[in-house]
Amino acid sequence: MAIPESFIQELLNRVDIIDVIDASVPLRKAGANYSACCPFHNEKTPSFTVSPTKQFYHCFGCGAHGTALGFLIEYQGVGFVDAVHELAKRVGMIVPQEVRSEQAVAAQKAAVGMIEALQLATDYYRGELKKSEKAIAYLKGRGLSGEIAARFQIGYAPPGWQNLTEVLPDYQSETLTLAGLAISNDAGRRYDRFRDRIMFPIHDQKGQVIGFGGRVLGGEGDDAGPKYLNSPETPLFQKGNELYGLYMARRAIREAGRVVVVEGYMDVVALAQYGIAYAVAALGTATTPVHITKLMRQTDDIIFCFDGDAAGRKAAWRAAMNSLPALTDGLRLGFLFLPSEHDPDSYVREFGTDAFERALAGALPLSQYLVEKLGEDNDLQSQESRVRFLNEAEPILKQIQAPRLGLLLRKRVAELVGISLDELENSLGLRQTAARRPSGPQRVNRRPLTLERHLIHMLLIKPQLAAGLEMKLVSGKTPECDVLRRLLELAAASPNLSSQALLQALQGEIAEALRTELSSELMIVDDTLDLEHEFAGALLQLQSTWEKQVSTAAELLLLAQEKGLQALTPEQRVLLQGSRWGHGKRKE
């Protein structure tokens, strides 16, 4: 069962966002609006604004924005359904349900089954930890208290091949394989994925367990397997999207005004033991732009803390490179390299909390780190070495979209190689690209008009049309889809806004170049068209595309349940893993 979109809109119309937010974050009247210091990042001057007329909040510091429903989900960390029920209770509304297709219901049940199985496994592992003297001794030897182990729900998977038969009612169910708890060998025999390991549950933003990290108790060996073993990619868990410890660390991150990204589970837990509760870890993969974007929702100060050995420095460089597309001028990235004989766990245990935080304060800023890294083994004393330096800097400079940071870094690179900024930009083609950029109307004439772009144009001219478009239909991840979703939110809050008022509301929330393009494109849109008729036709196309995506993903999930993941092609597995039935955070 699903909550009808029409009810959600009616609920948002009845709820007063001022009352909702003021209950958690005291607001002060500021002209026509209300303001406060933003609860989503650390600041001293209020930049968090709530509009009683638009029923919308926006932070001009970190960019957080949304409706009353979105605030509850972000601030309290509750799920979408729970947030809807809480708001409905405030205004005395009863939440209705609508019947979905059999395939969608089956997919939802499969997702719920995986979540239930993972939670049962979590409870089992926690119970087994209390019974295992060697597991308890290991954790105590690492300096962890029972309180910290309980906070992170740490457990222990005992030796044995089919221990989970004790707690999972149907051990042969394909749900266990989909959830990453069990493995089947070539002979068809099923066995537990995790054995004789300390178990670290991985939580999503709602606090649900979506996977595990398992660590051997001793060193690596032929029988022990890898030191760390993560859950595989599943419909619920993708390593490139999740960060270990983020769910528990959100409040501490906001209070500290920064987050520390480390390499391992034990680093996160050990730092929390010593009062540094604002640490998270990537899950056996390099830090991705998705990770950076998630952290930017919590703070504008991110510090990567890696071991000082070759592996740690390699991981830091990958993190820096993957961060470039997500950079903004308000974001501070720092890099801290510990002595080669230490990781964050051992460092904080030997030197203490104050010493670790002093080390964090001395982290290298991203710009300095990039320049120093590029200058390694390059004395810039010859023309050839300067050319090599420029060649290595070029792809980095071209990825940085943050205007001020990009400008200052280009200036620094130009100084180091002994050329002017103009010469550098001309050499790399940066200014030539900008000079050749055509004006808005010319771009429209050459650009094939996408369905999303067409819908954006019509909503900007007549926002009342948004009442006919359900948010769930806009499922893409392109900038245009982001704009379309944002326009739907604005139109729902205030359907009588003018085109220019809507464009103004988008300022600071989308790329300025895209906002300028949309403004220019409106000048040549024929607003004498029958917009209702045009919009209805575009809506039918969008509905058809969405239904095909839902149907395909549901069929793949059912096929995987019946015949196993091996029955799917690699492309089908990617599509299935990209779907989050009943799990992903729903945007307002």
Strands, helices and their partners?
Elements lengths: L4 H10 L2 H6 L5 E3 L2 E4 L11 E4 L4 E4 L5 E2 L1 H9 L3 H12 L10 H30 L1 H9 L4 H6 L3 E3 L16 H5 L3 E3 L5 E3 L4 E7 L5 E8 L11 E3 L12 E2 L1 H11 L2 E4 L2 H9 L5 E4 L6 H8 L4 E6 L3 H14 L8 E6 L6 H8 L1 H9 L2 E2 H10 L7 H17 L3 H15 L3 H8 L1 H6 L4 H7 L4 H11 L17 H15 L5 H7 L6 H11 L8 H33 L6 H9 L10
Parallel strand pairs: 13-14, 13-15, 15-16
Antiparallel strand pairs: 1-2, 2-3, 3-4, 4-5, 6-9, 7-8, 9-10, 10-11, 12-14, 16-17
Helix pairs in contact: 1-4, 3-4, 5-25, 10-13, 13-14, 16-17, 17-18, 20-24, 21-22, 21-25, 25-26
Major sheet strand order: 12-14-13-15-16-17
- Helical proportion? 40-55%
The CATH topology assignment of the largest domain is: DNA primase DNAg catalytic core, N-terminal domain
Model regions low in confidence, pLDDT < 50 over at least 5 residues: 432-448, 580-588
CATH architecture of the largest domain: Alpha-Beta Complex
Mean pLDDT: 81
Strand content: 5-15%
Shape: globular
| Rg measurement, Å | 26 Å
How many β-strand runs? 17
Number of domains: 5
How far is it from the N-terminal to the C-terminal residue, by CA?
Answer: 18 Å
Going by helix content, strand content and strand pairing, the class is alpha+beta
Largest sheet, described in full?
A: 6 strands, mixed
Counting DSSP H or I runs of 4 or more residues, the number of helices is 26
CATH superfamily assignment of the largest domain?
A: DNA primase, catalytic core, N-terminal domain
Query: Which CATH class of the largest domain applies here?
Result: Alpha Beta
